[in-house]
């Protein structure tokens, strides 16, 4: 499978410039790679920006499915590169045909195929607190059969966390959904942040935030423990940059999970505006190795290179709640 993740730095409400910024990242990318993609994924609320604080604040940027600027961009890009395109956007739904009431609003992701047709529209199921200022919960996690990609489980950012952080840590709602629908592909569009200070976090923009990656992997633990004979590809497409006081973690990643092992096919730095290209027919960069003790670090072992260690117990997630210090970072049992 040939995958592209477009990681960039959109700003709240600056739609035209955000689209221009995404186009600029694509223009700098290798065009041969773009023309051979099976899927191109953009972050959560890619062109509107994310950090809205009320329905009034976001109202000028709400879009109808298949009719807004995000769907139009996805359609044009899908036709240009002959690929499936997935873009996160703030959705408005006219429900007046069902009953006399106000429109409904969702944090959504539209899926457009290579012929420019909208084939799916996923609505974020688990909302982060800032989503709750304007959006409704979607009904369940995404479960689509996408021609050329296969059975696809879809989520948006907070979906991989426990529900409202009130559900038990080990409920693993999204990961069990992936297993239940027997997905061979998992796509998560994200606006995942860090609470680290901007001046220190952004000093090394080309380096991935390995604490965030360690956290994401922990949230996939049931998939890893299932030890499936079939490889499950997991795409985590995040945004980067700063919106006001909010710092985003970047680190878009493509993982492969098979027989209890986690392979890393590719990842971007925390501050890179770039397209991550991955072909899963090629060998992975390396594997994530389990730590020996719960309090020890998660290791990333690239073939032939020294093994760097990264902290796995202080990663911050979409909901900005801190990871329980008692949770281990063991990858395979």
UniProtKB/TrEMBL annotation:
InterPro entries: C-N_Hydrolase (IPR003010), C-N_Hydrolase_sf (IPR036526), Nta1 (IPR039703). Residues 321-333 have a biased composition (Acidic residues). GO terms for molecular function: protein-N-terminal asparagine amidohydrolase activity; protein-N-terminal glutamine amidohydrolase activity. It comes from the Eukaryota. Signal peptide: none annotated. Residues 1-284 form the CN hydrolase domain. One of its GO terms (biological process) is protein catabolic process. Residues 289-333 are annotated as: Disordered. Keywords: Hydrolase. The keyword Metal-binding does not apply. This is Carbon-nitrogen hydrolase.
């Amino acid at each position: 499978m040939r995958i592209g993740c477009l990681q960039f730095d959109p700003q709240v409400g600056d739609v035209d410039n955000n689209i221009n910024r995404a186009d600029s990242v694509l223009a700098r990318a290798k065009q041969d790679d773009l023309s051979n993609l099976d899927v191109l994924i953009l972050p959560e609320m890619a062109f509107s920006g994310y950090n809205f604080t009320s329905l009034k604040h976001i109202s000028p940027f709400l879009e109808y499915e298949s009719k807004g600027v995000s769907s139009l961009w996805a359609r044009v890009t899908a036709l240009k590169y002959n690929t499936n395109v997935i873009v996160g956007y703030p959705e408005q739904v006219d429900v007046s045909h069902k009953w006399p009431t106000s429109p409904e609003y969702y944090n959504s992701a539209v899926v457009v195929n290579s012929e420019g047709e909208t084939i799916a529209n996923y609505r974020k199921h688990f909302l982060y607190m800032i989503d709750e200022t304007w959006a409704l919960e979607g009904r369940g996690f995404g479960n689509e059969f996408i021609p050329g990609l296969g059975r696809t489980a879809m989520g948006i950012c907070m979906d991989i966390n426990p529900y409202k952080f009130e559900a038990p840590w080990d409920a693993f709602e999204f990961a069990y959904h992936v297993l239940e629908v027997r997905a061979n592909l998992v796509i998560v569009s994200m606006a995942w942040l860090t609470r680290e200070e901007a001046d220190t976090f952004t000093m090394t923009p080309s380096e991935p935030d390995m604490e965030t990656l360690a956290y994401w992997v922990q949230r996939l633990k049931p998939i890893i423990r299932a030890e499936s004979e079939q490889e499950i590809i997991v795409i985590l497409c995040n945004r980067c940059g700063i919106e006001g006081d909010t710092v985003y973690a970047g680190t878009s990643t493509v993982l492969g999970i098979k027989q209890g092992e986690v392979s890393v096919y590719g990842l971007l730095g925390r501050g890179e505006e770039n397209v991550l290209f991955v072909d899963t027919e090629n060998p992975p960069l390396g594997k994530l190795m389990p730590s020996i003790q719960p309090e020890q670090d998660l290791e990333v072992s690239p073939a032939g290179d020294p093994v760097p260690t990264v902290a796995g117990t202080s990663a911050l997630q979409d909901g900005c709640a801190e990871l329980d210090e008692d949770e281990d970072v063991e990858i395979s049992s």
